[in-house]
Amino acid sequence: DAKTTQPTSMDCAEGRAANLPCNHSTISGNEYVYWYRQIHSQGPQYIIHGLKNNETNEMASLIITEDRKSSTLILPHATLRDTAVYYCIVRVGYNQGGKLIFGQGTELSVKP
Amino acid sequence: GAVVSQHPSWVICKSGTSVKIECRSLDFQATTMFWYRQFPKQSLMLMATSNEGSKATYEQGVEKDKFLINHASLTLSTLTVTSAHPEDSSFYICSARAALAGAGEQFFGPGTRLTVL
Fold first, then answer.
1. CB A46 to CB B106 under 8 A?
2. Distance from CA of B65 to the nearest CA of A (A)
3. CA torsion sign, A58 to A60 to A63 to A64?
4. Which of A3, A17, A32, B42 lies 20 to 30 Å from A97 when distance is taken between CA atoms?
């Protein structure tokens, strides 16, 4: 599975959009981009995933560049409860033996 | 989303004893379950993958005789830490994938904090 690079930490003001970047320049054509987050001392929570197209759900939006070498997770209106470590993971599909391998992630602090 | 539970949520044991952690998928059938370990201020590390009715597949460097995994049903997997030592103290997290999952459907339990004295 391709490796991802994320900033170690970021701050965001409450109510503002949080834009979390992820670089995955070695991504293969059959690899998906996943985002999970982990609030302190809890299990990771699924946020969103995509292959080529931009995706949006009730939690966030995922913007994938046309060359698929990077992506951005957008939390449109960050709240204090969004303070967590955010993980960007690249993985092939399960039917190809894909596993979620976690990197160091980005520690997002949402401040009042 | 689907719910995955773990029991116990925390456990303290003496060195040399064995500890069993249960992982259950509450509202879906999980053909595949994953076990992770997380040390303080570190990321999650995948330990093993188990498929219902099959032997678990362990990641490189994980001792299969020390971390026994059983996935006997579509809703239950257990991790037994045998002869636990203080260095096994960690946060253990399971994850389950639904039988009819698409590309993104893998859900995590709340974790079990193990402290070995």
1. yes
2. 22
3. negative
4. B42
Does the beta-carbon distance from A43 to B45 stay under 8 Å?
A: no
Q: Count of residues for chain A?
A: 112
pLDDT in tens, A42-91: 999 999 999 999 999 999 999 999 999 999 999 999 999 999 999 999 98
Band (pLDDT 50/70/90 cuts) for residue B104 is low
In the block, residue with structure tokens 């059959």:
A30
| A14: number of Cβ within 10 Å | 15
d(CA B93, nearest CA chain A) in Å:
6
Q: CB under 8 Å to B109, separation ≥6 — which residues?
A: A43, B4, B5, B6, B23, B93, B94, B95, B96
- Is B57 in contact with B32 (CB distance < 8 Å)? no
Q: Are the beta carbons of B1 and B89 closer than 8 angstroms?
A: no
Q: Does B75 touch chain A (CB under 8 A)?
A: no
Q: Which helix (H) or strand (E) holds B70?
A: strand B67-73
Q: End-to-end CA distance of chain B, in Å?
A: 36
Measure the N-to-C terminal CA separation of chain A; round to a whole number of Å.
Answer: 37
